Hints:
Structural class: alpha+beta
CATH topology of one domain: GMP Synthetase, Chain A, domain 3
Strand order of the largest sheet: 2-1-4-3-5
Shape: elongated
Largest sheet: 5 strands, antiparallel
Radius of gyration: 49 Å
Number of strands: 13
CATH class of one domain: Alpha Beta
Order of helices and strands: EEEEEHEEHEHHHHHEEEEEHHH
Helix content: 25-40%
Strand content: 15-25%
Distance between the termini: 148 Å
Mean pLDDT: 79
Amino acid sequence: MPHIATIQFTKAGKMYDFNAGSLELTQGDHVVVETERGVGVGQIVKPPVEKEDGTTASLAFVKRKATADDMATVERISQKEQEAYRFCVNRIIERNMPMKLVKVEYQFDSSKAVFFFTADGRVDFRDLVKDLAHSFHTRIEMRQIGVRDEAKMTGGIGICGRELCCSSFLREFQPVSVKMAKEQNLALNPNKISGQCGRLLCCLDYEYETYCCLRKNFPKSGKRVRTVNAVGVVDKVNILTGNITLKLDDNKIIVIKRDEIVGDGAPVAAPAAAATATPPRPPQRARERRPEQRRKQEKTSLESYNTKTESAAKAAPAAPPPRDSAAAATTSDAAAKTGQPRKKHRSRKHGNRKPSGTTTDSRTPTPSPGA
Length: 371
């Protein structure tokens, strides 16, 4: 069975598995391995163990343990990286390029140099690569990274007073959100919850699950609870100390423990005395509202009148068909000769009555009975 060893190439960097073969390796040893980028020197994180996994057949082999000459070569490469860093920074300043150089890494056999930089957008660095290749006579690779990777490579001291987590032991970045800071009752001040990289602190993720589990045993803020001596609304909750701040109905603030809560509090009922003691409205405000009330009453009465009119019009019988005009004229003349009053038309509306001294024909006046 193959012996698999876990190796890292930088401090707090990613770990890779290699086939150790028959080499006897212990934790902390430096070894020379062949990688996709070329030959490199790594450090043993986990000593070789036997594994029967089928994927171990494609793993690269460890060449040998690092000797004193290999470690001397690593020191010379480190000096070359510093020289290349200073040279590249001067070229960036001379060309006024919108980029920031972070780090330079040489391969163990000096076959390639990788320049890590940060920038807000895309940068045209073709002329810079020509200058670097002409000066160092090796393959040049420019690689753009993010601000969190920059902090990991650069290192530093955090606001807690300790070395940055990403450069000391944190191998992979975890997603961090503002919700984690809210759950832990932290002040949402960017200066207090942001790290050296300008992003949210990675340590916000460490205790987030613990806070979520402990908060299940506490009432939410804004909920009414009842104790033996008082009833109030939860104002603040301190999960670490177990204290709950209550705001009573008379605006008093008290601090209780979780065990003192008996149950949910009843909703606040308005007392009858408070309702009767309400002062009457001033007469000026009542007079100001009178025109509006009068308009509402007039509008209501008008709508009711229109409704009654429409219903009466629907319930009225249909008007009889109009009579022949010749027959109407004959009847009118006969009535005039005999002196009898003319019959009124039933179909004519009350608002359109004609005077009694006229006939149906407007051209001939009706003679009076004494004529």
